[in-house]
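Exercise 3.2. Students should predict the tertiary structure of the chain below and write it as structure tokens, then compare their answer with the key that follows.

Predict this chain's 3D structure.
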Amino acid sequence: MIEVRALMKRYGDTVAVDGLGFEVRPGAVTGFIGPNGSGKSTTMRMIMGLDRPDTGTARVNGRRYQELSRPLREVGALLEARTYHPGRSARNHLTALAAGNGIPRSRVDAVLATVGLTDVARKRAGGFTLGMSQRLGIAAALLGDPAVLLFDEPVNGLDPEGVRWIRTLMKSLAAEGRTVLLSSHLISEMALTADHLIVIGRGRLLADTSVGELTANGRSLEDQARPTELRGREPEGAGRSAVSGGLNARSGYRISTTSVLVWTCQSSAARLCRATLRALSENSAVPPPPRWNDEGQSP
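Answer key:
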């Protein structure tokens, strides 16, 4: 289990994480969603003890990362893809990690097989593609057979088959009773992978909800996986600034020429889109956009 309480982190005048709090429970894939720059990676680094929070706490199974006696056996993480010596082979990289953490060498071959790198295990990792590097990073996270796992944008660099493999792997790890925290800026991808969702913007919690709430209309996520537009009145002043800061062009946000707020997203994520827009507006002390139905039209 991961527990984050009132977490705060500043870099100079920039507030990266602002009083954030949530829990990640075992037995489910928890999607950690927010646009680029929303504080996801900073939060995960604080959970892993790589950055120190200004205030607040982040605990893994009741302890800070620094207090774990066998960290690689208790929590595994992929925060960056290329965290290995480029001259080492994939096997040697994992063997060194195992030796330094008291992990049996048999785990090296096991995780290489899990991530599909057995055939290239003796090749230098410096020649790996980004997708292969992601797989090696996942292998390192799984090496100690930990109960808690964190993955920061693991589908980066993967082809469609690799993305589907990630979905299957995440679900199988959760089915084994592990705690799985999976970050992404892609709402539609998380709607297909996660069981629960933590949504943040500008370092603040915007929503803490189950994926089931996205499918309460009875349609499957696959049936809803088509583009839709959510429209509402454009906020002014501070509200416009907050919305444009919380939703960027990469997530489908734009202001139309008729001053109508339009966010194009997958229909499977339409409810989450609406919740995010409302939360951003409420945080800016402006009226929230009107409610939408699943076809993106005002009732």
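Discussion points: The chain has nine helices and twelve strands. Residues 160-175 form the longest helix (16 residues).
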